[in-house]
Structure formats: C-alpha cells, structure tokens
C-alpha cells in the first residue's frame, strides 16, 4: 500500500448505555464507517486514501466523529448520508464540508 495522501479515522467508541459522555457507537458510527468503506470501494479509491476505525477522538456528545489527516479536520454529527459529500468535497476535492466541522472550541 502506498502512503496515503489522506487518512480518515471514524470513532467507533462504545460505552454502556446512560454513560454521561455518550459514545459515537450509540450515535451510529458503525454505519458511518461502513458507508465510508462502501464509498471507497465504489470509487476504487484505495490509492492515497486510508479509512480506519478508532477509539475515542474527542467530543463524544457530538458524534459520530470523523477525523481527517493531514489537515486535522474534525467532523461531528456525521451520518451515513454525509459520507458521499465528504468524499466529493473534501477527500477528492480538498474542500472540507463546512456544515459538519466541529467548532474550534471543541477541537
């Protein structure tokens, strides 16, 4: 595998129900991860793009959270329906999806 130009991390942290911090898993992050992998497969976007599940990456109450490097862009409240837009705009086009960006106070 070549060194990826971008690396996407999807938080799949799971905590017990009623945990005060919540978790991305409880907010559908597994479906978000599957949507990223499906979009990558559909586009055959394996060269230069890595997609990895991760543990907690930050604001659990605002998940599902997605982190894109090397830009250090943190998306919050991501749903499977947002994945195509993230691919088109950011991963392939270089422009982050503003409506999904976590505010600077979070990141």
- Count helical runs: 2
Mean pLDDT: 93
Q: Helix and strand string, N-terminal first?
A: EHEEEH
Structural class per helix/strand content?
alpha+beta
Which ranges are low-confidence, i.e. pLDDT below 50, for 5 or more consecutive residues?
Answer: none
> What is the third-level CATH name, the topology?
Glutaredoxin
Which CATH architecture would you pick?
3-Layer(aba) Sandwich
Radius of gyration: 13 Å
Under CATH, the homologous superfamily reads Glutaredoxin
Count structural domains: 1
Total E-strand runs:
4
Walkthrough of the structure:
Helix content is 22%, strand content 18%. The protein has one domain: 3-Layer(aba) Sandwich (Glutaredoxin), CATH 3.40.30.10. It has a four-stranded mixed β-sheet, with helices on one face. It contains two helices and four strands. It is of the alpha+beta class.
